[in-house]
Amino acid sequence: MDLLKNIKQKRSKQKQKQPFKRNVFNLISSIVKQYHLKKSFLDILDNVEDDLSSKNLNLTRIRVKAPLDSPLFSLASKDQYSLTMSIISNVDNPYLKFAHSPEEIIWCKPLYRLNPAMDSEKLMRYHFRTLYLHERAKVEIEKPKPTDAKN
Amino acid sequence: MKQLLDSDLELVVESNFIYLPLLFDPEIENEIQTVFRSKKQIENSVKPDLKTIIKVKDKYFVKALNLPSLLENYEVINAYDYKRLRNDCLLKYQLTDEVDGIFLDETLKIILFQIMPHFIKKNSGLTRKKFNDKEILDLINRKINIPARYYKNAETFKNLAPLKNIIENLEIQTPVFKPPGNGILTGRKLRDWFHNAVQAKILKSERHRIAKSLKVREQFNQTKPEHIAILLYISDMGALEIDGFGFTRHNSYKGEYFVYKRTKEFVLTDYYARSYLFPECSVAVSTYLPFRPFVMEKYKHPFLLGHKSGQEICLKESVPSSELSAKNVIRTLEEGITALRYGYDCRRRNGYHSLDRTWVYIPTIDFEDYRI
Fold this sequence. Notes:
Chain A is mainly alpha-helical. Chain A has helices spanning 2-15, 24-34, 40-46, 48-54, 78-91, 102-114, 120-125, 128-142, 146-150. In chain A, helix 2 crosses helix 5 (78-91) and helix 6 (102-114) packs parallel to helix 8 (128-142).
């Protein structure tokens, strides 16, 4: 009897509709198409760490994510496909599926390096630049000040 | 389809099929790799005609549209574009119904060569001479400024070689169009080929029309290009006017016309000898029954029932003719014009209305605004 119940429960679970999740390819591919990205974008991605270290960034205002219309299934031409796959392999972190613009793709890597455990709600709501600056500010506050060290 | 053919996209044509660039996602890429890894194994078993995906210059293309089928069904697939191509094609060879029809239109011949000479000024000074058909066409050519394109079309009309060539090709059953050839093509190049193929197919279907048109052209081959240009101009415009006389094609009845003559301004007097200035109007008669004169414009007159366009002129004693002939049309037009200009008798106040307001005045049509 228990076995029968168990089987029935399993089957009813299997029958339940699962929410459709957009995969990273569809999302990045639609950004590539929408913003007409070229291969030179990969160079920007490669040099993003160097650029950040040379820039003096301040958290001036909180930026909200730009809306993105991405199709459920995206098909790309050969060039677009290879660029999309290169971006995915270059960034290679779970935050990428929350990016809504090329700028956010750029900020994805540094943000993940700074805090790899951010919750998805924040990632869905705020622009990655804002999150990055916020996280960096937190790290700087937590750093021991030279006067504290003396005491 | 239209977007595809208007683009610069690279397409491949092979075995009468259009192959489009393959679009990718990770799953498709995996499938492609699997297919082309095992390509050598399946190559012998699969006919080249049935290849769904082909690789040309390191690019993948997927089988999409069958060209002969597309050509065959283009009339249904894109009716608007097919109609446009058909019109372009028929115009290119001057093969429209109107063009052939105009050369065989007996009614038009009566109007041009018998009625028109009666109403237009042909000679200068006191010389009087009867004009033949060619001289009348020369006269029209002098009086009407015919655009240059009609002279160009007349040259096309007189050139029998392209039509003879088409007929010969159709008779010896050569294929109506050459296939575009296998290989990479841009969308625009394929579009040009496709349009030519559709036009070749249209010409094949219009074989009878071409044969008929060829006969007409052979008949008129000795005619001057200027005269052909005039007829092509009339065929296109459907109307002509010289010295206040003109005709216009009837929109609903094919091959029928309204023949008209403009009156100049004229004055009528009422019972009290007051003058009324009537504006000019066009008195017309149709080439189909009943042959009664009417005023084309919105007009008011004691002999017209209301104040609107297309009203028959009240001719009590006139019996309309029952046959279309130049003599009858001329008589009807002249009767109409005479009635309007000279028919009103101020003493009898004949017609539907009186010019002056009588003591038992019932307001119907008022002529006070014409008083001078």
